[in-house]
Amino acid sequence: MAFTNLKKSMINGFAIVSLLISFYIGQSDSKEIDQISKTQLFQENLITKICKEHGSITAYHKNNLVGYVSTGQSQGYGGPLKVLILSDTLGNTINTELIHNTETHAYLEKLKRKEYFEQYVAKKLNDKFLIDADIVAVSGATISSNAIAIASREAAWQIAKHDFTMKLPDIGSEWRIGTYELIVVALLIIATLAVYLKNKKLRYFTLFSSFIIIGFIINASLSLSSISRVLLGFIPDIRHHLIWWILMFGNLIAILVLGKNIYCNALCPFHATQILLNKISGINFKIAPSFSKYLIQSPKYLLWFSLMIIFISKNPTIASYEPFAMFFSLDGIGIQWYILPAALIGSLFMSDFFCHYFCPVGASFTLLVTTRQKFIKQIKKNHE
Question: Which SMART domains does its entry note (predicted)?
């Protein structure tokens, strides 16, 4: 027993130290990743040089002034993103370019297919750049759409104010609280009651409501990128990402106060998907306990390996392998094309196949619940 505990402590210690080293490597990387003079936007508009003059960045074709340049930043789905705006000399945008991002590739491809970026051509620099006002979001990529609009506004308004002394419109606080936000709050409250009261019918109600609403309609499943954003400090603005805040911090508060993982138990849309598939097949294959006790540890190792890559790259989406977004939006890249069918087929034969053996989100929240339990146990022990 003593040897087993020592071995476990050594493994945990190695995991923690290696993650800290990876985090340090990522944070200490000062490489400039967005040299604006090498952007595609500059090449398309034959910009030969840029100069910083009296606080303005000006763009030239040979010796002819083309316009002005500025960049803006905001928080997207995967983390921070930066947008470059090139304007003409009359106060209009020539075009915009996303020069740095950590967004999920599938979402950006959807924006390109729907010609989202074309909306920024020839806009007035002092336009509002507001979703549902003068910018149309792309369904299934609304967070990325809004983040790009915010960054573009920041860049455009800098030019409008500094180089043209334009009057800027009042856009208020920009809180985005609509029907879906209220529905998600209601689902979280009901799910908390279902888990706390151990009410199976209520739990199934929230799971399958989430399957439709959080899954297919708003496609807002929590993923490893959601968790790594918190660890990297890339916290999105609550005014523009309220649903993310409700699901992420609502579950973290439930873990802290109740010691319950509400999201995985009663809100995860992909959990509901696996339950449905297993009910349809009626098969529940059991893995031999001697093998299952090792296989069930795999989410922890996958979580560790993924976080190593994420910390070094400072990109929350780079190692997010879950098939959630792909299943509900039918967009995916790379390994997700293999993981999704494997997860769906596995769920036909084993209950919660992906949850038990592969899910890094479940592993993350389970680790927090376990840590809380140990902490509470230690406090009680100290008071005895």
Answer: FMN_bind
Q: Flag the least confident range among 130-134, 217-221, 292-296, 331-335.
A: 331-335
Class of domain 36-163: alpha beta
Kindly state the helix (H) or strand (E) to which residue 368 belongs, with its residue range: helix 360-382
- Given a contact cutoff of 8 angstroms between Cβ atoms, the answer to whether 59 and 48 are in contact is no
- What is the structure's pLDDT at 9? 79
Burial class (CB within 10 angstroms; exposed 0-12, middle 13-18, buried 19+) of 283: exposed
Supply angle C-alpha 162, 163, 166, rounded to 5. 75
Domain borders along the chain are 36-163, 179-320+327-382
How confident is the model at residue 37, as a pLDDT?
63
CA angle 32, 141, 101 (to 5 degrees): 5
- State the helix-helix crossing angle for 360-382 and 242-258, rounded to 10 degrees: 30
Q: What is the DSSP string of 125-182?
A: TTS---BTTTBPPPTT-HHHHHHHHHHHHHHHHHHHHHHS-PPPPP-TT-----HHHH
| 73 within 8 A of 129, measured Cβ to Cβ | no
Percent of the chain whose predicted confidence (pLDDT) is above 90? 61
Under DSSP, is residue 32 helix (H, G, I), strand (E, B) or coil? coil
Average pLDDT over residues 103-121: 91
Handedness of CA 118, 119, 120, 121 (dihedral sign): positive
